[in-house]
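Reading a protein record of the kind used here takes only a little practice. The record below shows the convention in full.

——
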Amino acid sequence: MTMYFLTGIIFFGIGFIFKDKIKEIFSKIYTRAMLVKGYWIFSIFFVISTLLTYWLIVRYSNKLNINRNISILNHMSALLFAIFVGYYAFLQVMEGKLDKYKEIAYAHLKEREYNKARQYYEKAYAVDPKDESVIVNLTELYLILNDFKKFDLKIKLIKSNGFLESSDEIIYSYLKAAKYLLKQELGEAKKVIKDMVTKTKGESWSKIWNFHDIKDSETFKRLDGESKTIFSELIEYIQDATGVEKRKAFEEKFGEKLKTTKP
């Protein structure tokens, strides 16, 4: 009894000392298990249904036909399972490609190699046209590259997919405002910004998106006048990079400016 107690104390002590490492290991195991969750669900269902079919054949088949029926079931089961395994392997390969394309595209984006970034995000989009991060990054790149036709097509996809979180709607509005500011359509830009101010009051969105990607581009640097000033102020406001007084002043300033643009 004492031996078991001491052993338990030792294992508890080891677990406490290395708790962070153990937690990390179990986290990795869980993550990997989730990646093949669909595979195991199908496998369990397949095994149960196959065993049930075997039982039905043995229970209800004519004795003369049992061997033939079991043989047919064996071949059908092997074929179905092979098709599923092949399909799942294909999905895994495509998922790996998607992650690789996104990784390469993001690296090019950070290096301001915008055409290369666009190429890889387009490859990622071809693999998974519903990946939200790919669509949003591609939409932003079309702005940076002044390809407003493709921008309009992609931003429609963002809206049609729906806004799962309030941050999604903020990014959508930001991209719309960015387009109007880059095209120096101040009236339209101010309408979108007014809506954003209403939705972002008191909140910082710096963690959801890198709002400096466009600002770091040559497209932004070539911008001038009021459009450039508003763009810079908007980015600072969304990221809460200004003090309380400046933030309040931005809200009041745009409220007044927008009122003057109304007929």
In short: The mean pLDDT is 79. Residues 129-263 form one domain.
